[in-house]
Amino acid sequence: MKTKYFLPCSILAAFFLSCSTPKMVNLDPITVSENAPGLNIYRASYPKLTDIIHTKLDLSFNWDSAYVYGKATIQARPYFYSSDQMTLDANGFKINSVSLVKKDDHQPVRYTYDGKKLQIKLDKQYTRDQTYTVYVDYVAMPNKLKIGEDIASAGDRGLYFINREGKDKEKPRQIWTQGETECNSSWFPTINGPQEKMTQEINITVPNEYVSLSNGSLEYSSLNGNGTRTDSWRQEQPHATYLTMIAVGDFTITKDKWRDKEVNYYTEPAFASTAKLVFGKTPEMIEFFSKKLGIDYPWDKYSQIVVRDFVSGAMENTTASVFFDRMNMSAGQYLDENHEDIIAHELFHQWFGNLVTAESWSNLPLNESFATYGEYLWEEHKYGRDIADLKGLEDLSAYLGGDRKKSPDVIRFDYADREQMFDEISYQKGGRILHMLRKTVGDEAFFQALHLYLTRHSYKSAEIHDLRLAFEEVTGTDLNWFFNQWFLASGHPVLNIQSSYNADKKEISVNIRQTQDLTKTPVYRIPLEVDIYSGGKVERKSIVLDKPDQTFLFSSSVAPDLVNADAGKYLLGEKTENKTLAQYIFQYKNAPLFMDRFEAVMVMLQQKSDPLARLTLVEAFKDKNWFIRTAAIAVADRLTSEEQNAAYETIRTIALKDEVSHVRVAAVNALGRHFTSRNNRDVFEITKKDKAPSVVRATEAIVGK
Question: What is this structure's pTM?
Fold first, then answer.
């Protein structure tokens, strides 16, 4: 699942820069409480008593009542211990009948139902080598589920009728489902939790004019002669029950392909013309992830569907990801926000989360941290490390700016509510931890270990130790230290870095103190790289932090121009350094990474009163990274008249020609606020007609509509 963050604006705002209003996904509020201090809770994996092998559903719908009429045929067996009963999760159903399927006959069986659990008494004791088939005729009523009693929030209904009565002429009628975490049991009887996997067949009866979508392949469609059609979808490979989905509505299918597999985009007809613009990189993404992981996309097809009023940003149902309606974009809107990261996120889940599933909600980062890191991997591949590191900065900022950074472990067994697992710890912090793991073991070992992990646990579930063991097997090294301090603990390092040069001893001293609260957070073991710049050359030193206070000494015949600790710029944490403005300017001009330049630009923006800082920021108007260009333009409010004269034409050109709309917006705002004595009318006449809506809005805010 993906909740969309829009962080560049928040980062800029932190440094007093102007930016358009952040867009947030509107979610139903979920009220959960933390555990009381000292409460001893352990959230174990759910016990496996019954193993569902295959589920067949025959579904039809009553739009007027928002009912789901279902017939479930469930093939199962005891997981290990013999049993004469079966318990299914079924939330708010009307149970018409329950029976055992014996060849062509249905044999009624005794059952009890309390509105949530359907307990079925079987006809005999079954061993784990014996299968049985249960048939349940039921009516699901998700709209009648009461918040606070049957479900925690309106986002837990499982199945949704959109514009059910058709009264809203601006909104299509749709049906769609959302299963994570344990909501699918509100529309079909199943076993909740990420540990249960099954194959499935879903027959969906819909009006002839509507399109349906589900997991797997469409086997056939049958006209019923009464204005309806039944579509039969079959998923041959096992997957977690919460990943089962259906969708129904007036969708246009834009067809694409990856190798010999269907890749389809389901959109409202009005947005079919831009479906390939929005989703068209998907086949390239599938190819990249398949090669990078050494495991080809493991499912029959891949579809992506855009629905109205979705409860999250997107959801990675197996072979059929669902996206919120902001993916309905015009070509102009695509220039402002293409949501490519969300597409990569849900696709990477098809390996991490779907092929191999976290065995418990406590281990959710095995799904979500990887999907978040999949965003980074795609941007690194497609656009280079400079842009990918901006994505990494967004994730780091989401974590450090979140309100949960001080308390929860990444893999946590003491959550008060499983919904708490879907936070900046599981997503952004976890993604950054994976990046550190990659940098710690090296690229070759990192991707070989992922290949081993995925291969060993394909179509199964796994826990964090399975990931560690795969990395240890590949690298031949004990990695408990890494997993214990990062995945199985809370917090992050806070480093104070002080560098100095002793001319008498010809010696560089780098002192690093870990200043985090050591009563709650471990002393971290942190491999770091230190780059020393002097005499037009750079020399890299490798060090390992493993004490609260350490000093590292390096011989040098001359005072260095710059000592760049954390030269790899992948540390998840906070740090302060004693660099001078001159050293930060040197860092901006000479150090190789986006984060080197970003750190320097942020310091220069805080010291805009210094002419050297302003001069360097003006140079940064032409930085290769759009984010730094945007940030640097904020210096416009402190430029002297002479500096304004020198910078004016550059800002005009940026407003008209920069390839990124956010940078053009920053330039338009700078012209409108800080160059008011100039005649900018000709520029604004052009930007008022820009293809990107954000640029048009920025211009209209200055000159009017």
Answer: 0.95
